[in-house]
User: Fold these one by one.
Assistant:
Number 1:
Amino acid sequence: MSAHEIVPAALDGERIDRLVAMITSASRTQVVDWISAGLVQRNGAVVSTRSQRVHEGDLIDIDIDLDAPPAGLIPEPDVEITIVHVDDDVIVIDKQAGLVVHPGAGNATGTLVQGLLARFPEIVDVGDPERPGIVHRLDKDTSGLMLVARTQAAYEELVAMLAAHEVERCYLTLVWGIPESVGGLVDAPIGRSHREPTRMVVSAQGKEARTRYEVIETFEAPVPMALLECRLETGRTHQIRVHMAAIGHAVVGDERYRGVRPAVSSPRMVLHSAQLRLDHPTQEGVQLAFESPLPEDLAAVVESVRNP
């Protein structure tokens, strides 16, 4: 389907290429190609220059199929994937940072899904045809453990288990500041920002979202910080990042949610999917449990804070 957006007051005067990139999460290079091809319209007129400014109330039309994988689901054996478990129904991977989970606007190739299809072609008919086998996602720059369904029966059961909060997902994260309590529950609905479509915010009109956290270690220098375990009770987009920022403890290195500060240098946000625990979706009485340590880049950040 095409995208149709009305420019909000907060984006009055913004360049149209930047606006389209925010709406679609595409790269600026991809947006420029769309504009050059005449696929972007403002108030019914084809946009000819990427630097054109938009105004509040303008109607922006983007004539591309945002839901379809741009290059098709072509298996790509060169995509690096670390597989930690595989059986007849379930695959567990340890995703590296920088790997996009599935094709989308601005990410046509080199995704996890395309790498999985090269190794497990049978998943092509499992679940959503645009992201076969995928039952939950990790952000591009989040590393760690992730579940993939190998059969339709496993897919349906895993989706139901996630909805019923029967899959334990634990993340490690380094945050700015030290929480007042050694643990707690952030229970705050999350929805998409009207001002910045690629950002999520705590909103009364959002979807239910709950994150439990526990302080594992605290640091006082160079500035107060804390290493947390965060357990998801729901699975909203950017949930941990939004919830931690909302309580005043943004994830270190998170550019989108005010987590980049000069006191500590980090190559990416310090967020890692460290534990998965669940009952096997198709084998009664079988439990699955996996752990993944902090990768070297994030471990180095934590160590630099531990021993400044």
Note: The first strand starts at residue 3 and ends at 6.
Number 2:
Amino acid sequence: MSCHQWTVESFGVQWSCRRSEEFSVASNTPRPTKAERREAARVKAQALREEQERRERRAKITRRVLIGAGAVVAVGGATGLVVASQMKKSDLPTGTIAEGKANTPGVPEIVLSDGAWTYGKDSGLLGGQGVAIGSVTEGAAVLDVFFDYSCPHCAEFDSLHTDEISKLLDNGEATLVLHPCKILGQDWTDLAMNAMGLVIDKDPDNALAFHNAVFEEYLSIAQKQDPSRLTVETLVAVGEKAGVSGEVTTQFKDTITSRAYDAWTKLGTETFQNLGFKGTPTILVRGEQIDLTQVGAADSLTKLINK
């Protein structure tokens, strides 16, 4: 018997085979056991549940932004619910990416002089088609994202726009500039920044995936109000899930305990404060600050960049 067609269904794989007149030799491929089929179905179901949860979170974020359009919140403290205040255009950066690296002890090697790091098309990677850390896409719009890892709104923004930003980078439509800072005074920011610094230095190819995964985890923690998960062990698990090398995640504890990248946190925070921003996330497209009510849909950044 030779299988000529198969389709993926919701909780497993279903296939149909047509009998062959020439069939004479039994297949050497062992049939999966009942336990193996059950485990495969469980793994598939778990993946589908996680994907559905991500969709539901994004839908909730979109509804929350639309319902709260025009509102400005400045709470801070333990909740970390801060929305960027509006500023005059004359106070804003021009969208020009900082020149030169920080070259400072305690700051990742690839990080720029203002504490930011970039993603764009690397002309030498995959014939200019690959997106790489530390690269800039010439002629593309600059998308600046100022964030605090302890800011739930930053986590919401990241969850809503991760896929969209990935497409913008892949299509060469934008250069992403990530600006970390610590404005909410939360210990989680220190943990995340030190872990991220190590990943950028030791496993840079997985840094963006780790960045997104940290926010995904924090959003879950905030929604479930479970601060017990704000630990080094959680970051290790997040790193492993994001594909960070085990050789790197095993160094998280020592790196965080020694506060190896605190200088980076300080540099990014000083940049944020010197620019006069008041809350996170602060989003700029081509140097112009974007009202957060304009980015409440999963395709809103694309529309802003291409308008």
Note: Residues 68-306 form a domain with the Glutaredoxin fold (CATH 3.40.30.10).
